[in-house]
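Lab manual, section 2.4: Encoding a predicted structure.

Procedure: take the sequence of the chain (266 residues), apply the prediction step described in section 2.3, and record the output as structure tokens. A sample record is shown.
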Amino acid sequence: MPPAKKRPRAYDVARIRTAVLAQFAHVRECVTGLTPEQLEQPGPGEWTVRDLVAHVAMTLEQVSRAMELPEPAGGPRPEITLLEWPFSTAGNAAGIADRTRALATAHPDLDALYAETATRFAELVPAGAGDRLVTTRAGTMRLGDFLVTRTVELVVHTDDLHRATGLDVPYDRQALAACTRLLADALADRAPGGSVEVRVPPFAVVQCIGGPKHTRGTPPNVVETDPLTWIRLATGRTRWAQALDEARVSASGERADLAPLLPLMG
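Recorded output:
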């Protein structure tokens, strides 16, 4: 019998909404100081920094546009759950890249784009409508779950911005925590079990991978790393072997090898 999957983690929608706005504000403050030369520097993949900055705005605008539409029909059950979302992103990569470049071209004034995006989000996305269904590229989702996915987008691309420009963009603690926890829970959902304990202090501890389950004392198979390294591993920014070689992740025990399971997001 396969290991039973745990009940999904609950998130406070109001706190997540606040965290999303806070992280967006951190990025916005740094974006206003970017020079034209910095904006044309290479970003992640084939993007420029300008493309990346536009994409960050798009992550919030997607929520605002979804709230402007009528609630999708089909009953209260969403088409995609929060833990399924990380695995759905790879198929949308090409379309997202095209829309990002179009947005960057259409809005050369990035300061104005960020101001408009923040205002629309604050006006259109209430804190008390977490169970409302919204249409996303992956399928219909609960608004509360969709907001948690925005913490992943914002934190991941904040890190991308830092690595592309050298700017030390702050991380909102709640946004970083939600991002870390969702990606850790997605790992446990992909490989349910209790033979390996994955620790990402101070935000997450999960057990995963089938096999003998640990019940007390020191677990025989332990993986431990910091939040940003975990996020980079989960999203393919850093490879497992590289993180081990650079001592950014520790792995003890014969089962403590997450390489076959990573990345979680394409």
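Check your result against the sample. The chain has a mean pLDDT of 91.
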